[in-house]
Amino acid sequence: MNFNVKGRNITVTDALHSYAEEKLVKLGKNLNSASRLELELFCEKNPRIEDNQVAEATIFTKGPVLRAKATSPDMYASIDKVADKLGRQVRKYRSKLVSHDAHVRGSLPTDAGLEPLDLDLSDEDEEDGPRIVKTKQFSIKPMSAEEASLQMELVGHDFFVFRNADTNETNVLYRRRDGDYGLIEPI
């Protein structure tokens, strides 16, 4: 597994890098060797935030993208927390993948990984009220609604946009308040 650590407004020391590598690289034994893990470390500058040491990790697999974020007063503790969160996601991903393959052999696309492109669109000259401050762009892969629900659970979001493999239309899968899923299809 490829491993990359970067610091935003902080210097990543050798000790911090080796500690993060020791904690996170062992997750790779449950993933494909082509997986890539990116860890971003930064410190919140707001003095009111007590847990200001932040670790954000993203694992790009052949399937879904797994993400976790953890905060604490100590960067090493944040790395421990993010490693625990990602460990749970990897185990969930592997167990769902195995159980899904038992029911439908080979139905998961091998290139279903989605790489987000974050663009900051904040503009100070706009009117008051709601405004778009961030845009994410994803490549949309054809998949079934069941596969979309699996990927939505793995990334931990309340909705998921995907291209329906049967109709080739863009659909939205969302989590309802009762815990079930809803599917929005265009007419």
Task: Describe the fold and architecture.
- With about 190 residues, this protein is an alpha+beta fold.
- The protein folds into 2 domains: about 1-105, Ribosome hibernation promotion factor-like (Double Stranded RNA Binding Domain, 2-Layer Sandwich); about 115-185, Sigma 54 modulation/S30EA ribosomal protein, C-terminal domain (SHC Adaptor Protein).
- About 25% of the residues lie in helices and about 30% in strands.
- It has helices at about 15-25, 75-105, 145-155; strands at about 1-10, 35-45, 55-60, 65-70, 115-120, 135, 140-145, 160-165, 170-175, 180-185.
- The strands form 3 sheets. A 4-stranded mixed β-sheet has the order 1-2-3-4. A 4-stranded mixed β-sheet has the order 7-8-9-10, with helices on one face.
- Helix 1 links the parallel strand 1 and strand 2 (about 35-45).
- Helix 1 packs parallel to helix 2 (about 75-105).
- The protein is globular and about 55 Å long.
- Mean pLDDT is about 80; it is low at about 105-125.
